[in-house]
Specification:
about 80% helix; Growth Hormone, Chain: A; 19 helices; mainly alpha; about 0% strand
Length: about 425
């Protein structure tokens, strides 16, 4: 078992700080922008990138290639976690949060100006992969800093409820992303959408990044970081210190994250691709169903945050893992049940459960590490877990469905829930 830090996430003086609302807004808005950027890529990869950047391949190979570019960001995220975690643990949370937002936003906007394969040949998918790497690098430093900004300012007994602020950025970003694509589907013809309409959501990121920067430039450092700096110099190499002093927490934390990623990306990116291309549902109809189902993710996050403060984040996460296993078993009879009602009910259930394996993470993961290496430790666990749980999930699920239909996809999801349950069980709290 890992040795869990008993160090408080917040100093008593921070309770009742006058900037509490601003801090929570900065945590929420920043992650909403970051996740909006991430989700518009996932949606575009499901709908158009295969045809635009890999037109010479078979339909399945096109989709697999598009999802392969999607996975690149997950490989970049641990590198971003190392770099931003290093500076976040040495110079502070605020500066790194601003830098991560700029890198991710800049990469997203640049995607809007990419040429297609028909125009530039192999250079087009190569540039797409490069910018996708930039998205992942920026997001690698985003979540850990946003989570610490919230929980390190939380008064006693409110850590999980403050911690849901960055988690709610996920459904907010998803609603904005799907809403934009749904609107474009209504206003544009298929030819217009494929020609230039898909670029508009990436351009719109410029406005959202500006809002995020305006909010984040007004925040101050967290009390826990300020107290740590008063006690002594910061760690020379935070990653090395985490690896040497907190290996159990790093491994257990990484495993505990896998279920939320697998559940989310199978319920969004894979579901959208399979539902429209294999099951034959209209694109706008399916986007509308996902837009309604994502509200259950927000409800699950709020409920899980409240329960986590009443019990513990770990216990709520374990309940969510059991629910993830159930979602895996229900995938075939409900998602493949042949009616839009069953599809909606399944997605609503899966995303509500995802709130329980995602909402308490911002309170649980930082609590595994001392303040001096908390940014690095939490970010590494979250993003390496993202590779294992989400980076390859749409591609693996597409390949499994191609060979054996939906049943093996459901088993894959159930296995992810079991793996996270084991990771949580190895920790003391």
């Amino acid at each position: 078992m890992a040795t869990i830090s008993n160090e408080p996430l917040v100093t008593p003086a921070s309770a009742g700080r006058p900037s509490t609302r601003r801090i929570l807004l900065a945590s929420l808005v920043g992650t909403a922008v970051e996740f909006y950027d991430f989700y518009i890529y996932a949606t575009a990869a499901s709908l158009v990138f295969g045809d635009l950047f890999f037109p010479d391949l078979s339909p399945t190979a096109k989709q697999l290639s598009a999802f392969a570019t999607f996975a690149i960001a997950f490989l970049a995220r641990p590198l971003g976690a190392i770099v931003f975690g290093h500076f976040g643990d040495r110079i502070g949370r605020k500066s790194t949060l601003v830098a991560s937002l700029l890198i991710m936003g800049g990469s997203t906007m640049a995607i809007a100006f990419l040429p297609s394969y028909a125009t530039a040949g192999w250079i087009a998918p190569a540039l797409l992969c490069l910018l996708r790497f930039g998205q992942g690098f920026g997001l690698g430093g985003e979540w850990g800093g946003a989570a610490l900004l919230a929980v390190e300012n939380a008064p006693p007994g409110w850590r999980a409820r403050f911690g849901i602020a960055p988690q709610l950025g996920a459904p907010v970003g998803f609603i904005a992303s799907n809403g934009v694509f749904l609107l474009l589907g209504v206003l544009l013809t298929q030819e217009q959408f494929m020609s230039w309409g898909w670029r508009l959501p990436f351009l719109a990121s410029a406005v959202l990044v500006g809002v995020g920067l305006w909010v984040r430039l007004k925040i101050t450092e967290t009390p826990a970081f300020a107290a740590m700096m008063e006690e002594g110099p910061p760690p020379g190499v935070p990653l090395a210190e985490v690896a040497v002093t907190q290996p159990g927490a790093l491994i257990g934390g990484t495993a505990g994250v896998i279920a939320c990623y697998a559940l989310f990306y199978l319920s969004t990116a894979f579901a959208l691709s399979h539902g429209t291309q294999v099951l034959g549902y209209p694109r706008e109809t399916f986007l509308g169903i996902q837009l309604g189902a994502i509200l259950f993710l927000a409800a699950g996050i709020v409920a899980a945050g409240w329960l986590a403060d009443k019990s513990s984040p770990r216990s709520v996460l374990m309940i969510g893992c059991i629910g993830t296993m159930a979602a895996g078993l229900l995938l075939t009879p409900m998602f493949g049940g042949g009616t839009m009602l069953l599809v909606f009910l399944y997605l609503a259930f899966a995303l509500f459960v995802m709130g329980f394996v995602y909402g308490p993470l911002s309170a649980w993961l930082p609590g595994l590490f001392p303040a001096r290496v908390r940014y690095t430790g939490a970010s590494m666990a979250f993003n390496v877990g993202g590779i294992l749980g989400g980076g390859l999930a749409p591609m693996i699920a597409t390949a499994l469905a191609e060979e054996g239909g939906l049943p093996p996809v459901g088993w894959y999801l159930a296995a992810a829930g079991l793996l996270s349950l084991v990771g949580l069980a190895t920790q003391k709290r």
